[in-house]
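Quick board copy: two proteins, each given as sequence then tokens.
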Amino acid sequence: MDDRARLLIADDEELFLLSTADLLRQEGYLVDCAMDGEAALRQLREQRYDLLISDIRMPGNCNLALAQDLPEPNRGLPVILMTGYPSAETAIQAVNLAVLAYLVKPTAFPELLAQVRRGVAQRGLQEIVGGSARRIQAWAEEMGRLARGFDQAPAGPPVQALLGAMLGRMGETLMDMKAMVDLSGGLDSGQQTCRVQSCPRLETYHQIFREGIEILEKTKGAFKSRTLEDLRRRMEGAVTPGGR
């Protein structure tokens, strides 16, 4: 499975559409193209994307229809709006729609690329937050089962299995936190970014990771699980210089 970010460009100016798509492909992105709003909407219904780049004035995009009502599986998709005919009206619409960027043509490619990278990072963060929320919900359900297990019977293999699952959820959540910190640095160039030698955010999740590793280390005798041992090693690698 190709894990590169997939972009959709919707624009009725064929030269701009094809040249921009080629430049973004050279940067490593997967790029699909649409010549009007109807074609773009059809592709948005059929394929999951990481970013939409949309012209404002093109057939099938009345009142910024594409950005206003994105279909599944692209709810919340970051959108870059581009126009050769800027106006106060469309700029206000863009602000109300909370689009990622409103760019006026001709736009220098480095400026567009910077916004594309920011949008892809935002989409990745959305995915991680959503996955983490689902894992935390599962964690809460497992804790409820664990509590009922203690009420109904002495600690035994079923309870141990639940405890092991809880530790696994904790580790997954910590890995999500690391990924969120890594991605959030690319969302806004004005924010504090991590440096190789010193980064307060890195220190924060390093400390959380270390505490999680200590818990896994203390409980490894009670839970003979290869999965938990693999998790412990991954977490150790995340806090070790040069580790992955």
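And the next:
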Amino acid sequence: MKIFGIIGWKNSGKTYLAQKIISHLKDNKLEVASIKRAHHNFEIDKPGSDSFLHRQAGANQIIISSSKRWAKIIELQNKREKNLNELLEELDSPDMVIVEGFKKENHPKIEIIKDPEKPSTYLFKKLKNVVALISDSKIDSSLMQFNKNEIKNIVNFIINFKS
């Protein structure tokens, strides 16, 4: 299982890039999983759905299952959030895991730089394991660099990357 991350500041295009990378990896016949870090409260079931009503009634763990997919919802109730390694253990051996966020974890990452005119905001200067950059402008760095539209080149870099 190969793990590769996408990091950047809010609204930098992380989800857009993750979506494109996942699609191209699937085109390469790889089984792909993704893990997304959310910094806010989020809902995965719709208000009014049965699972939502079970949760609202007080169930701490809910499993939704059908012939198409299943999901497990656990209400943490302010207990410790799982770290990336614990979340990776929940996966069923995919070929590739694309991780959005989790910038302080120890996996290779690509940073999306939205505003190249603000070098003080560059994450790669403060974080370990940033191995490439995506920007519409050239960044002063020895790291591999891509334009955000070079999806095939980015995917080939990820597939061939050796840590």
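Board note added afterward: Strands lie at 2-7, 32-36, 61-65, 70-74, 96-100, 109-112, 130-134, 144-146.
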